[in-house]
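Tokens as discussed.
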């Protein structure tokens, strides 16, 4: 079977493809951090100015992101950051729960006192930030601004929460597993998870206690308990996130 040769990296075609890929990665990162909010219009001129490129790679990058499901093109609005459907969130978090549960099983016998200390410190950061709730989201709710530069990047709460989970993935010692979890996480903007915690004080406290139980299970080298606690934690987070989208998608994002 004949296949077209891939463009040489140093050829004009190869350099053009690399620029498009880099542009798509930069836009994706801003969407996932919440810097470009869900529901925001993606104007090619603004993005080109922001990224210091011409409109051509931006246009091709948006097509790439549309094919990946991160953005969509709506009548009379053009390209916008896509609002995930609640069922998509539930399905993704069901997969994530299994993967992170496996990571806990693998991490149980590799965890050290230093790792346990870092996990507890990350959770304490989440607790401390939750006391200053106004800072948790890192900016306005998605849909409140239409400019790609209207929201700042990930909040301290989101960063600490990600650190807690990523540390377990690292200790698990399986790069393919860690990459699979990362792919699931990057299906949805991270700042929305912080907004879910901001809107629900009870969920904030539950999240912190769930982290504590995971650490306790790891410290006790109880693999099945660690798996069970992590799976319950992720499923709970996914359900809260799905409900958040259900309650707001019609009014905040669609108007």
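Sequence:
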């Amino acid at each position: 079977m004949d296949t077209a040769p891939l463009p040489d990296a140093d050829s004009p075609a190869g350099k053009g493809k690399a620029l498009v890929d880099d542009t798509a990665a930069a836009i994706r990162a801003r969407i996932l951090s919440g810097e470009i909010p869900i529901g925001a219009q993606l104007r090619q001129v603004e993005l080109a100015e922001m990224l210091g490129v011409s409109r051509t790679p931006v246009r091709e990058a948006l097509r790439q992101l549309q094919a990946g499901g991160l953005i969509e093109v709506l009548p009379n609005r053009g390209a916008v950051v896509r609002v995930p459907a609640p069922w998509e969130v539930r399905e993704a978090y069901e997969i994530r729960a299994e993967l992170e549960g496996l990571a806990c099983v693998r991490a149980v016998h590799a965890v050290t006192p230093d790792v346990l200390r870092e996990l507890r410190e990350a959770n304490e950061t989440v607790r401390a930030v939750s006391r200053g709730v106004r800072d948790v989201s890192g900016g306005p709710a998605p849909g409140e601004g239409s400019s790609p530069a209207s929201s700042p990047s990930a909040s301290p709460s989101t960063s600490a929460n990600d650190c807690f989970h990523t540390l377990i993935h690292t200790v698990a010692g399986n790069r393919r597993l860690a990459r699979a979890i990362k792919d699931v996480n990057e299906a949805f903007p991270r700042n929305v998870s912080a907004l879910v915690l901001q809107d629900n004080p009870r969920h904030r406290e539950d999240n912190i206690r769930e982290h504590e139980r995971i650490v306790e299970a790891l410290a006790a080298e109880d693999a099945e308990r660690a798996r069970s606690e992590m799976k319950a934690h992720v499923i709970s987070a996914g359900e809260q996130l799905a409900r958040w989208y259900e309650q707001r998608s019609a009014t905040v994002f669609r108007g």
